[in-house]
């Protein structure tokens, strides 16, 4: 028996040795910049968020490699830089696990659709899909239109100012839209809790980046001793209390009116209905609500703010959008509002080019649980975090000539024909692609078209004057400032 036990132990040790040896061999064959002994690239992530952003972008541009590695302590990150390799990763059902960095968001958004895997992910995606169907979007645009008109009224006051910091304005507007549509709860315009939620949402993103750049925080006894841990608990309470209150209010309505799910129901209605059928635990409703509040609000706010910045700085493009909007709305009425939005082809190109230049999610990541062979011939070891640096893909001159130029014609039907399907990743791609892409684009179209019908957007800040920073979604170091002038 002792001999058998010894042989089993030796076999286990041999497998582990071989596995570690193969991992080391495969890692050494991957190209990448110089790394400090033991620390790897860690020292470069201790900078301020704007310096960290510049460093990451510099890495990607350095040698125009199809792939490069980044080592942080003993954790391997591999960055894919060509569409063919990205397609191998994102289109396969084998590589659906989110990267390990997403675990840092679990205290906020839990382990629901946003970052779960396996059967739970598949069931949740199937369950929530109807909340973003065409039928639901047709219903949602009515709320988009109402809030866009209210938003435009707020700009009347802002137009008298020397300039407007647009993110707080846009952020509050999109928050009300998300609550009324996705959450099915209409909030008072002067609801103070909205402002608290928005401030907490911004701060938790900063704390996420702070924690991400300090790997030793992964050792819980150390993290518990830091001020950022205790601050994050307070911030998370604000975020969770907000969604909890919305859910409780929705539960009351279900209890009073009875549960009857109608076509075009919002996400929260679907979740509560499924909880009554015991297809989702009641406790899990909040994690899905938290995730969709974040994904639906922050990303759309980012897109609209950058779109207004670009339109203000390119008057000829703004004029062309204005003419399209006027032409469309002069021929129709409210009954065809959804179709009107769909027919705004040039505005659609503007938003897609905005998201090319400033993708709301500048990077996505997968954790591979088996070896992966890329199209370019590299073998990535099991247990690797594989990053898709969307911002850098979108600024690759091999894919987009003169990549920093704002040119909506890149997304004309003719110019899209020959583009690799994985060269544009504003909403990710493959099985885990963003479910809310239509929601975001329709909301953006509604708000921007409403503004441009009444106001001309004038530059104060420009694309050259802003500084991008590392954050959960793409943001600027200082708020974007613009001016509105009534037409």
UniProtKB/TrEMBL annotation:
Transmembrane segments: none annotated. CDD domains: CYP4. Gene3D superfamilies: Cytochrome P450 (1.10.630.10). Residues 1-24 form the signal peptide. It is a peripheral membrane protein. GO terms for molecular function: heme binding; iron ion binding; monooxygenase activity; oxidoreductase activity, acting on paired donors, with incorporation or reduction of molecular oxygen. Keywords: Endoplasmic reticulum, Heme, Iron, Membrane, Metal-binding, Microsome, Monooxygenase, Oxidoreductase, Signal. It comes from the Eukaryota. The keyword Heme applies. Coiled coil: none annotated. GO terms for cellular component: endoplasmic reticulum membrane. It holds the Pfam family p450. Heme binds at residue 434. Its cofactor is heme. It is found in: Endoplasmic reticulum membrane; Microsome membrane. Belongs to the cytochrome P450 family. May be involved in the metabolism of insect hormones and in the breakdown of synthetic insecticides. This is Cytochrome P450. It comes from Photinus pyralis (Common eastern firefly).
């Amino acid at each position: 028996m002792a001999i058998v036990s010894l042989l089993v132990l030796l076999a286990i040790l041999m497998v582990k040795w071989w596995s570690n040896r193969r991992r080391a061999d495969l890692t050494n064959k991957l190209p990448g910049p110089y790394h400090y002994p033991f620390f790897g690239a860690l020292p470069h992530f201790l900078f301020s968020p704007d310096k960290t952003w510049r460093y990451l972008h510099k890495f990607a541009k350095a040698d125009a490699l199809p792939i490069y590695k980044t080592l942080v302590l003993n954790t391997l990150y591999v960055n894919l830089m060509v569409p063919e390799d990205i397609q191998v990763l994102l289109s396969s059902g084998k590589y659906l696990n989110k990267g390990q960095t997403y675990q840092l968001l679990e205290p906020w958004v839990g382990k629901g659709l946003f970052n779960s895997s396996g059967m739970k992910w598949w069931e949740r995606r199937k369950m929530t899909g109807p909340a973003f169907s065409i039928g639901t979007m047709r219903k949602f645009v009515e709320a988009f239109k109402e809030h866009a008109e209210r938003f435009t009224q707020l700009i009347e006051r802002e137009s008298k100012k020397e300039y407007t910091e647009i993110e707080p304005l846009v952020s509050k507007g999109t928050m009300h839209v998300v609550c009324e549509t996705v959450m099915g709860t209409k909030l008072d315009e002067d609801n103070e809790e909205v402002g608290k939620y928005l401030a907490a949402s911004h701060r938790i993103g900063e704390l996420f980046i702070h924690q991400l750049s300090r790997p030793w925080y992964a050792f819980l006894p150390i993290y518990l001793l830091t001020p950022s841990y205790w601050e994050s608990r307070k911030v998370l309470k604000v975020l969770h209390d907000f969604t909890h209150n919305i859910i409780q209010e929705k539960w009351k309505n279900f209890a009073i009116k009875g549960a009857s799910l109608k076509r075009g129901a919002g996400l929260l209605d679907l979740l509560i209905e499924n909880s009554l059928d015991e297809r989702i635990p009641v406790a899990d409703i909040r994690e899905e609500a938290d995730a969709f509040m974040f994904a639906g609000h922050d990303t759309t706010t980012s897109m609209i703010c950058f779109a207004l910045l670009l339109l203000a700085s390119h008057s000829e493009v703004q004029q062309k959008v204005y003419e399209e909007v006027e032409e469309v709305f002069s021929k129709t009425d409210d009954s065809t509002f959804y179709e009107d939005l769909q027919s705004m082809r040039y505005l659609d190109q503007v938003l897609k080019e905005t998201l090319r230049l400033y993708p709301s999610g500048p990077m996505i990541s997968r954790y591979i649980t088996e070896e992966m062979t890329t199209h370019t011939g590299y073998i990535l070891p099991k247990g690797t975090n594989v990053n898709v640096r969307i911002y850098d893909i979108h600024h690759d001159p091999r894919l987009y000539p003169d990549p920093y130029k704002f040119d909506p014609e890149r997304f004309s039907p003719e110019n899209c024909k020959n583009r690799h399907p994985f060269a544009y990743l504003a909403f990710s791609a493959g099985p885990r692609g963003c479910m809310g892409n239509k929601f975001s684009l329709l909301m953006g179209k509604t708000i921007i078209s409403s503004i441009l019908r009444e106001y001309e957007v004038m530059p104060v800040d420009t694309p050259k004057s802003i500084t991008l920073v590392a954050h959960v979604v793409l943001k600027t170091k200082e708020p974007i400032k613009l001016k509105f002038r009534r037409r």
